[in-house]
Write a structure and sequence with these properties.
Strand order of the largest sheet: 13-14-16-17-18-19-20-21
Low-confidence stretches: 1-19, 779-794
Radius of gyration: 44 Å
Structural class: alpha/beta
Number of strands: 21
Distance between the termini: 105 Å
Shape: elongated
Mean pLDDT: 82
Number of helices: 35
């Protein structure tokens, strides 16, 4: 019953009317039948389109009848009338018929032509009327000269044309009336020339009967067409309702090709707070966003207008109701003409303000996190837009807080996903207890939550709120008999100040969260414009990195590593360098993380390995070559194959290749990482532990990973040279450890003779630093030893 009532409201025709064309037929007046103007009523416009389409489809039949009758008269009159006159008449009439057929075919096959020069009742009536005038020529000009048998044939042809016209042009009553009137005049002329009064009277009576029949047939055609259209529309609307499964309360809407509202169910209009008739004709953008303020702020509104502009169906787009402070789920699809052009839209709208927050409706289920039961990303977006709209004129209220759980992954990995899921639910409950009625808590995914705060957004209030969130989550959790300890990091963005759109505010809070993570766990950070500038700069730099990798504009530079006693080159460390065309040299610590983040480290790492091995083969001193390897490259078995291929392709002895890794790869005691290192060692290459002692050191790494060399970080080297007791003690301990394990040592960052003398005396095996040269590209003749060999040979 609800569907049927919506059909009546949306179409203006009840389902009963659609099944009773006789009732509708009695309501059709002469104006509906013979008016040449385009009707305002949408239903009558659709009927007119069907009428025009019918006459166009019958055009070949009507032309065939015209030409056949013309040929009969041409043959009958050829013996008594000047053949040149007859032929000229027939050729001109035939040309008009050909033009009419051509236009009818083009109108039905060429959508652009039909749009530029559409067929109307007026154009059809004028065309048919002009064609019918040619049938007045034979009785007026040639009837007196014709033989009696030809005169009789002319009378019969005129009667045939009257009957044919009433049938073939009936879909366009004005055209049929014009044609029948002219052909009846032709028949009446024949009767008067024969001075046959009964024939003339009969012609008049017959003409009146034909005209009455035209009116009756037109009424029946219009009624049936209206009923057919109504049933088709009802069927389509039922399909729309079933397809979109509208939830909540609402109704149907319809737009025309200019995006103006042409139909609206009364139920939907009453919920908006008005009646349907007062909204008809309003452009949809003006209806939904009269002040043009919401579209800029609402991603849902932007999605809706994008679909309308592109002509693509949409489903359950949530938009805010500006005038009513309600939320609506809108679904719709375009209606198209036979050429596929969008001529309007039909759809449903449902009030989801309440059901999205309470109850068990599918609308609510689609907006809830299935694990914790709190808001999911979709509902968070809507609630965030709602908060922004509420505070448009109050920039000192509302905020978004992003919360990331610290050490959750460790719990998940060690205790299992079941315990991890229960921990997430417990954390969500604590967040809700802190926020209370002043905001909403949602889960973005994984261990990341969001808090939409509706209260004051001064820094003191938000600082207190963030502190309470961190404090509550930092308290121990009792889950499944286990005591779990985690923490939280918070990023804060204030509504109005840090973003006036949902997407901008989300980004601001995310950047603040990233900054808080960089500062350490259990902290919070407020968004600042500098974060956005840095993020944008990083994005632009990422694009430049991709371009540089594609065009191979990065290059490898090598820094010497020398024997501490002889100062002869024993190894060269390959270092990736990038000279940006506008920024100048970019430090590796700035662009290498970007390469890792975008997933290109494997590609560029393989290129560096291949290039370094090939260039090492042309060094006359046979020094080793060192290549830095990141933790991302060590994951899986890919690096082993890359190293093997580089060695095989270049022919380099595996013992001449050193792979440098940093201690950070051992965070988490990853057994797979140790296995990967062992597979590389089995290839015969040397493993070097870089930056030893910077914070992740464990003596077990040295024995389990079988390193060949330890590199002492430059901070310890410089500190020891300055006489700092703690740094000196660390260097001495490292040297003692390496001597006991039979491992070489390299001191990094050597810059002065004092450092050289001290480190050599302490027993460091190798030295590396600016004292022995800065990293530089090596061409075939740029190796000093090679130049000396060439000079001696010369």
């Amino acid at each position: 019953m609800w569907i049927l009532s919506q059909q009546k409201n949306a179409l203006g025709v009840t389902p009963g009317d659609a099944r009773r064309p006789k009732k509708v037929e009695r309501q059709i007046g002469l104006h509906d039948i013979f008016s040449l103007k385009q009707p305002r009523d949408l239903m009558m416009r659709a009927v007119r389109a069907q009428q025009i389409d019918t006459i166009l489809r019958l055009a070949p039949v009507t032309i065939a009848i015209q030409l056949l009758c013309g040929a009969v008269l041409l043959a009958a009159l050829s013996s008594s009338v000047d053949n040149r006159e007859l032929l000229a008449w027939f050729v001109v009439a035939g040309a008009i018929c050909a033009v009419r057929v051509g236009r009818a075919w083009r109108l039905r096959s060429d959508a652009d032509y039909e749009k530029r020069v559409p067929a109307t009742f007026l154009s059809a009536t004028l065309t048919v009327g002009f064609l019918s005038i040619f049938w007045l020529i034979p009785p007026i000009l040639w009837f007196d000269d014709a033989t009696s048998s030809s005169q009789l044939l002319m009378a019969v042809v005129s009667a045939v044309l009257v009957s044919a016209g009433s049938l073939t042009f009936i879909s366009v009553p004005p055209a049929a009336l014009a044609y029948v009137t002219v052909t009846l005049a032709s028949t009446l002329i024949i009767a008067l020339k024969l001075q046959n009064t009964p024939m003339a009277a009969l012609t008049i009576v017959y003409g009146l009967a034909v005209i009455i029949a035209i009116i009756a047939s037109a009424r029946q055609f219009i009624a049936k067409t209206r009923a057919s259209i109504a049933l088709e529309e009802q069927s389509e609307i039922i399909t729309i309702l079933r397809e979109f499964e509208a939830s909540g309360s609402g109704g149907l809407w319809e737009l025309d090709h200019q995006m103006r509202l042409v139909k609206l169910s009364e139920d939907l209009a009453s919920q908006i707070g008005t009646n349907a008739s007062s909204l008809i004709g309003i452009q949809v953008r003006k209806l939904l966003d009269p002040l043009n303020r919401v579209t800029e702020l609402s991603s849902g509104m932007q999605d809706l207008f994008r679909h309308l502009h592109e002509g693509t169906p949409f489903r359950d787009i949530a938009i805010p109701g500006v005038a009513t402070d309600r939320w609506w789920a809108v679904s719709g699809r375009p209606t198209r003409d036979r050429s596929g052009r969008v001529i309007g839209w039909r759809g449903v709208a449902s009030d989801i303000t309440d059901v999205r927050l309470t109850g068990i409706d599918s609308v609510r289920e689609a907006r809830r996190d299935p694990l914790t039961g709190i808001a999911n990303r979709l509902l968070l977006r809507e609630l965030l837009e709602e908060m922004i709209l509420e505070n448009l004129d109050e920039p000192d209220r509302g905020a978004l807080l992003m919360v990331d759980l610290d050490r959750f992954k460790l719990v998940n990995d060690t205790m299992g996903h079941a315990i991890g899921d229960r921990l997430l639910c417990e954390a969500a409950g604590r967040f809700e207890a802190v926020v209370g009625d002043d905001g909403h808590v949602g889960r973005l995914g994984g261990d990341e939550f969001a808090i939409i705060w509706h209260g004051p957004n001064d820094q003191e209030t938000l600082r207190h709120l963030a502190g309470r969130l961190i404090e509550e989550v930092s308290r121990s959790f009792k889950v499944g008999g286990a005591t779990l300890n985690i923490g939280a990091t918070v990023g804060i963005a204030a509504g109005g100040r840090d973003g006036k759109r949902e997407s901008n505010l989300m980004r601001a809070a995310d950047l603040a969260l990233y900054q808080a993570k960089r500062s350490g766990r259990g902290r919070y950070a407020f968004f600042s414009q500098g974060m956005l500038t840095a993020a944008e700069d990083s994005r632009l730099l990422e694009n430049d990195v991709r371009d540089a990798l594609t065009k191979r504009t990065m290059h490898i530079a090598y820094q010497r590593i020398v024997d501490s006693k002889t100062h002869e080159t024993v190894c060269r460390e390959s270092l990736l360098r990038w000279d940006h065309p506008t920024r100048g040299p970019i430090p590796p610590q700035k662009f290498i993380p970007i390469i890792e983040d975008v997933g290109l480290i494997h590609q560029i790492g393989a290129w560096v390995l291949q290039r370094a091995c090939k260039e090492a083969m042309i060094w006359p001193d046979k020094a080793r070559v060192a290549v830095n390897v990141s933790a991302a490259q060590l994951e899986g078995e890919g690096l082993e194959e890359v190293v093997r291929e580089a060695l095989d392709t270049s022919g380099l002895d595996p013992d001449r290749l050193e792979l440098e890794v940093t201690e950070s790869i051992f965070i988490g005691e990853d057994a797979d990482m140790l296995d990967s290192l062992e597979r590389l060692r089995e290839l015969g290459v040397r493993l070097v532990l870089d930056d030893f002692g910077k914070g992740y050191s464990s003596l077990g790494y040295l024995s389990r990973a079988h390193f060949s060399k330890i590199k002492i970080d430059k901070d310890f080297v410089h500190g020891a040279a300055r006489g700092e007791r703690d740094r000196l003690a660390i260097v001495q301990a490292i040297l003692a450890l390496s001597e006991g394990l039979g491992i070489e040592t390299t001191a990094e960052g050597v810059e002065t003779e004092q450092e050289i003398d001290m480190l050599t005396a302490m027993g460091v095996s190798q030295l590396q630093g600016y004292y022995f040269g800065r990293p530089e590209s090596i061409e075939p003749d740029s190796v000093p030893e090679r130049r000396q060999v060439k000079q001696k040979a010369g």
